[in-house]
Design goal:
The structure holds 2 protein chains of 2 kinds. By secondary structure, chain A is mostly beta strands. Chain A has no helices and 12 strands. In chain A, strand 10 and strand 11 form a beta hairpin. Chain B is mostly beta strands. Helix content of chain B is 0%, strand content 52%. The radius of gyration of chain B is 13 Å and the shape is globular. The mean pLDDT of chain B is 93.
C-alpha cells in the first residue's frame, strides 16, 4: 500500500524566514509520480510541481525549490524568504498505478502560517 | 478560460437524505476525479471518470456513486447520508485519462454538512 507522511502538522514562521516542508513516501512501485499542491483558505488545491520517479533533478521556481531523494523516499519543499501570501495548507501526493490507472494518495497536509 | 466549477458550494442535509453534487471541468478536459476532505481522514480519492466511464474507485461504500456526461460534466451522489459524510468534496479535472499521473485543476469544493 502507498503512504505519504507529512510529519509537520503546522509550521509558524515570520515573514522572510526560509521554511522547509517535509514529505516522506512509501511505495513498492518503481514508477510513480509525486506532487505538491497548495490549498489557500478559498479551498481549491493549486498545483505546484510534479515529478516522476525517474527524474531526481531538483527544481527551483522563484522562491520555491524542491528536493527529491529516492534514497530516502523524500520530496521536500522549501520556500525561501516566506511571505504572508504563502500562508496555506500544503499537500504532498504520491500517484501509483492501481487497476490500470494512477490513483493519488495525499499526505495529511502541513499548515503554514507566515506572520508579518 | 473558466476553471473547474462546483455547485452547490455549501449545503446542509439531514441524516438519511441523499445529495447530488455537480462539477463542470475546464473546457476540453475529459477526465474528472472526486475527492473527500475531512479533518479526520484528510484528502481521499473517491473516483475518476474519463469519457463517461468510471476508471477507478477509492475505498468508499456503495452509497457513493457518480457519473459523467458526454460533455464531461460530472455528478456525484451520496445516498442515505450519515454524519460522517460531512466533508469538503473536491472535484478536479485533467486533460487526459490517468488523472492521478496528470496535473489536476481543482474546483473550490462543495462543503456538505450532515445534521
Amino acid at each position: 500500500a502507498q503512504k505519504v507522511t507529512q510529519a509537520q502538522t503546522e509550521i509558524s514562521v515570520v515573514e522572510k524566514e526560509d521554511v522547509t516542508l517535509d514529505c516522506v513516501y512509501e511505495t513498492r512501485d518503481t514508477t510513480y509520480y509525486l506532487f505538491w499542491y497548495k490549498q489557500p483558505p478559498s479551498g481549491e488545491l493549486v498545483f505546484l510541481i510534479r515529478r516522476n520517479s525517474f527524474d531526481e533533478q531538483n527544481e527551483i521556481s522563484g522562491r520555491y525549490s524542491w528536493n527529491f531523494q529516492k534514497s530516502t523516499s523524500s520530496f521536500n519543499f522549501t520556500i525561501t524568504a516566506s511571505q504572508v501570501v504563502d500562508s496555506a495548507v500544503y499537500f504532498c501526493a504520491l500517484s501509483v498505478m492501481v487497476g490500470g490507472s494512477y490513483i493519488p494518495t495525499f499526505g495529511r497536509g502541513t499548515s503554514l502560517i507566515v506572520h508579518p | 478560460k473558466a476553471g473547474v466549477t462546483q455547485t452547490p458550494r455549501y449545503l446542509i442535509k439531514t441524516r438519511g437524505q441523499q445529495v447530488t453534487l455537480s462539477c463542470s471541468p475546464i473546457s476540453g478536459h475529459r477526465s474528472v476525479s472526486w475527492y473527500q476532505q475531512t479533518p479526520g481522514q484528510g484528502l481521499q480519492f473517491l473516483f475518476e471518470y474519463f469519457s463517461e466511464t468510471q476508471r477507478n474507485k477509492g475505498n468508499f461504500p456503495g452509497r457513493f456513486s457518480g457519473r459523467q456526461f458526454s460533455n464531461s460534466r460530472s455528478e456525484m451522489n451520496v445516498s442515505t447520508l450519515e454524519l460522517g459524510d460531512s466533508a469538503l468534496y473536491l472535484c478536479a479535472s485533467s486533460l487526459e485519462g490517468n488523472s492521478g499521473a496528470n496535473v489536476l485543476t481543482f474546483g473550490a469544493g462543495s462543503r456538505l454538512t450532515v445534521l
